[in-house]
Amino acid sequence: MIDPKPATPSQASGKTSGKKRRFGGTEAQIRSALKFYKVMAYLTGTMLLLLCAELVARYGFGQYLFAGGTNAVTGQPFGLGFADAEPPGVLNGMNVSVTVLIVHGWMYVVYLISNFRLWSLMRWPFLKLVLLALGGVVPFLSFIVEKKFHAEVEAELAANPQAPQRY
User: Fold this and answer.
1) Considering just the CA atoms, what is the radius of gyration of the chain in Å?
2) Cβ contacts of 78 within 8 Å, gap of 6 or more
3) Element at 110 (helix H, strand E)
4) How far is CA 101 from the centre of its chain?
5) What H or E segment, with its residue span, contains residue 36?
6) How far is residue 78's CA from residue 156's CA, in Å, rounded to a whole number?
7) What does the alpha-carbon distance between residue 96 and residue 141 come to, in Å, rounded to a whole number?
8) N or C: which end of the chain has fewer CB within 10 A?
9) More confident residue, 7 or 49
10) CB–CB of 66/95 below 8 Å?
11) Tens of pLDDT, residues 95-120
């Protein structure tokens, strides 16, 4: 049989023993960081999908995407399209495949900055920062994570409208 225990003061008043929610900045700063994160999540996710398509073309079919230059076989001007990687199918053209690699790499760095900014303002645990960072390297994950964390930030801001700042 279970012995009844007297109610403690916190249970009797209905309050929880949890801490009051604190943010690392104002609501305007958090919303600004959220908007920056959202833009970077979509841009980085799109560039990651382009990168995946480029890697399939390169390693699956031995093709690079080129813009401009001269066709190595016919000597005719080359517009935009796929050409052989080895031996080079286009001379003096811009290798769009390599450009996608470079742009995604730098965009991922800016994406990580947006992750850190949002994470630090929201004062989340470190595991959430790791999950945010994975969004830029796992295809489609940036779109899923962005939607989840966007809703979470909005819910936390709505639940704690007057949460004190850290500083």
Assistant:
1) 25
2) 66, 68, 69, 70, 71, 90, 93
3) helix 96-122
4) 16
5) helix 27-55
6) 54
7) 24
8) N
9) 49
10) yes
11) 888 899 999 999 999 999 999 999 99
Chain position carrying tokens 């004190």: 164
Alpha-carbon distances of 32 from 24, 73, 118, 156, rounded to whole Å: 13, 52, 9, 15
Q: Which backbone phi and psi does 67 adopt, to 5 degrees?
A: -130, 125
Report the SS3 class of residue 156: helix
Cβ pair 38, 152 in contact under 8 A: no
**Containing H/E element for 81?**
strand 80-84
Q: Are 30 and 122 in contact (CB under 8 A)?
A: yes
Buried-state track 106-125, b at ≥16 Cβ within 10 A, e below 16: ebbeebbebbebbbebbebe
Return the percent helix, strand and coil in the chain, to nearest 5.
55, 10, 30
Written as one letter, the residue type at 97 is: S
Asked if 90 contacts 69 with a C-beta cutoff of 8 angstroms, the reply is yes
pLDDT in tens, 52-84: 999 998 889 888 888 888 888 888 888 888 888
pLDDT for 5: 59
- Which two tokens mark 106? 């730098």
